[in-house]
Amino acid sequence: MNTTHALALFDDQMRRNAPPDTPTPRLDRTPHLTRQVGPAPHDWTGILWSDLDEHTADEAIAAQLAWLRTPEAAGREFEWKTYSHDRPADLGTRLEAAGFTPEPPETLMLADVHEIAAATQDAHLPAGVHLEPVTDAKGVDLAADVHEKAFGTSAARLRARLLDQVEHHPETVSIVVAMADDEPVCAARMELTPGTVFAGLWGGGTVEAWRGKGIYRALVAHRARIAAAHGYRYLQVDASDQSRPILARLGFAAVSVTRPYVITP
């Protein structure tokens, strides 16, 4: 995989000219910013892409803060999703000075779908574990419960978003839960973005007692096969420190560092 080419495609297709992550949000585009506005409280709202410099960054940040004071934005969490290759280099510092709160950074990793499918042909679930596709509210509850146990954070917004996707936009997502008998032990999803060459891997949380048994790797393999069958060329992951080494061994390349800056008006 040519990482320079893949990153340029990612910036173009998944950021600057990104379609909405589900059919309902609105994309506001200017020559230097792309902002998604979700109609529901659980929808993601924020800056997907920016092309600024030291002379235009503060004005652009101020314009977003002004929009956040409008009735449309009231009470809505807003995220400016930055990448380490964005300009200016001190964009994060400027966002903090304007009142945004930084969240932990993650590594943007990309890989060729077919290379990952080939590299994970030997991936198997441990004995007694099987995969259940999520197609209804009961499955969404299982996936959300795994998220809370694996990451120690509330899954309320995630539950609402996944339920909306499963019920109204099933073509945009593929969710699976790994079950040990009747116990959900790992959950992961893949966001499918028609009109692009990228499928995004998200979640992949495993409850602590079941880590290190190959379940995460098996779910990467499962999703890679689905992405290949749908004609996607690349897999994209915002990798935590825990998942980055696993993905690197599978052939994913680290191409940037992404960090969200959030604010609630």
Relevant terms:
8 helices; GNAT_dom; about 260 residues; globular; Aminopeptidase; GNAT family N-acetyltransferase
Describe the protein's architecture and organization.
There is one protein chain. This protein is of the alpha+beta class and 265 residues long. The chain folds into 2 domains: 3-107; 110-255, 3-Layer(aba) Sandwich (Aminopeptidase), CATH 3.40.630.30. It contains 8 helices and 12 strands. The protein has helices at 3-16, 57-68, 91-97, 113-119, 137-151, 156-168, 215-229, 244-250; strands at residues 26-29, 33-37, 46-50, 78-83, 101-102, 106-112, 129-133, 173-180, 183-192, 198-206, 234-239, 253-263. Strands 1, 2, 3, 4, 5, 6, 7, 8, 9, 10, 11 and 12 form a 12-stranded mixed sheet that branches. The longest helix has 15 residues, at 137-151. The protein is globular and about 60 Å long. The model has no long low-confidence stretch (mean pLDDT 94). It comes from Actinacidiphila epipremni.
What's the gist of this structure?
This protein is an alpha+beta fold.
Strand content: 25-35%
- Whole-number mean pLDDT: 94
Low-confidence stretches: none
Q: How many domains make up the coordinates?
A: 2
What would CATH call the class of the largest domain? Answer: Alpha Beta
Overall 3D form = globular
User: What is the distance, rounded to the nearest whole angstrom, between the alpha carbons of the first and last residues?
Assistant: 41 Å
Strand-and-helix sequence, N→C?
A: HEEEHEHEEHEHHEEEHEHE
CATH structural architecture of the largest domain: 3-Layer(aba) Sandwich
CATH superfamily name of the largest domain? Gcn5-related N-acetyltransferase (GNAT)
- Share of helix among residues? 25-40%
| Largest sheet entry | 12 strands, mixed
CATH topology name of the largest domain:
Aminopeptidase
Number of helices: 8
Counting DSSP E segments of at least 2 residues, the number of strands comes to 12
